[in-house]
């Protein structure tokens, strides 16, 4: 696994042009990957909502200043409701920004924050609009960009059904470019009747594009990854048994002491699992 951090954790610290400094601090604390979350990019972005745009020159500078850190871009887009046009400026710019920051392995994570009306237990439960994901993936794949998807209200199993349908409409060479972002803590909190880590265990490795670590106690988020509702040791064991070697993002909450919290979170996982 590649230990990582995410820029929305730095909401308190982020100020204009200081993103490179924050990335450097995360590196000192043990991060080797940073997920660049839309709306938490300082002078590397402009605008909001449909008017959001990446500032490409500043993203290029960031990547050049941090050659030993890998990056991916994360966007909040309502892709499950069919409201994202593959050809519009927002999505096209997102793909190009993902290419800039991702170097030779560009990766765009799409998270749809829109609450879903029901849990998807069967293929027929998935709203027709959600299958518009196919067109988005086709645009990304044409530019060599991997896409991972996430919605905190749906289980890993539910989103796997959607991605498998998408893959069926792609060529054999394109299918590996779309998969999941897995965040077991979200599933534990939002779907307590499911077994989030069993879902992770059953996921084929080629479907697993990125994972998030966070923690809660009795359903309430805590500032660090520590003992809590998520069995982190079991999660790491599952990832290691699969041979997962991608980013493991510590998505800890914003806090005045966020970098010490990041250090404590990374140390905790290393101690309980014995990883170096």
Description:
The chain is built from 9 helices and 12 strands. It is an alpha/beta fold and 276 residues long. It has a single domain, classed as Alpha-Beta Barrel (TIM Barrel), CATH 3.20.20.150. A hairpin with a 6-residue loop joins β3 and β4 (53-54). The mean pLDDT is 93.
In short:
The protein is α/β, with parallel strands linked by helices and 276 residues long.
The succession of helices and strands, N to C, reads EHEEEHEHEHEHEHHEEEHEH
* Percent strand: 15-25%
Query: Helical element count?
Result: 9
- CATH topology tier name: TIM Barrel
CATH class: Alpha Beta
Terminal Cα separation, in Å? 11 Å
CATH A-level architecture: Alpha-Beta Barrel
Return the average pLDDT rounded to an integer: 93
Largest sheet entry: 8 strands, parallel, barrel
Structure summary, number of beta strands: 12
* Spatial arrangement of strands, main beta sheet: 1-2-5-6-7-8-9-12
């Amino acid at each position: 696994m590649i230990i990582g951090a995410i820029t929305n954790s730095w909401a308190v610290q982020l100020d204009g042009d200081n993103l490179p400094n924050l990335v450097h601090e995360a590196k000192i604390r043990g991060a080797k990957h940073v997920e660049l979350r839309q709306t938490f990019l300082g002078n590397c972005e402009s605008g909001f909502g449909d008017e959001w745009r990446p500032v490409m020159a500043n993203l290029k500078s960031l990547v050049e200043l941090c050659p030993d850190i890998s990056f991916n871009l994360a966007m909040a887009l309502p892709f499950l409701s069919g409201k994202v046009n593959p050809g519009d400026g927002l999505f096209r710019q997102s793909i190009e920004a993902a290419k800039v920051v991702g170097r030779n392995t560009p990766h765009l994570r799409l998270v749809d924050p829109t609450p879903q009306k029901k849990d998807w237990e069967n293929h027929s439960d998935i709203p027709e609009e959600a299958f518009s994901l196919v067109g988005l993936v086709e645009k990304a794949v044409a530019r060599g960009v991997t896409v991972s998807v996430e919605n905190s209200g749906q289980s890993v199993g539910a989103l796997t059904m959607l991605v498998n349908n998408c893959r069926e409409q792609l060529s054999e060479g394109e299918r590996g470019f779309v998969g999941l972002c897995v965040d077991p803590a979200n599933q534990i909190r939002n779907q307590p009747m499911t077994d989030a880590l069993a879902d992770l265990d059953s996921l084929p490795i080629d479907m697993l594009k990125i994972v998030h670590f966070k923690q809660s106690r009795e359903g309430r988020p805590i500032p660090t990854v520590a003992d809590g509702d998520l069995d982190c040791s079991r999660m790491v064991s599952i990832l290691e048994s699969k041979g997962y070697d991608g980013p493991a993002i510590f998505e800890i909450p914003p806090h005045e002491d966020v970098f010490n919290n990041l250090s404590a979170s990374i140390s905790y996982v290393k101690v309980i699992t014995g990883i170096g």
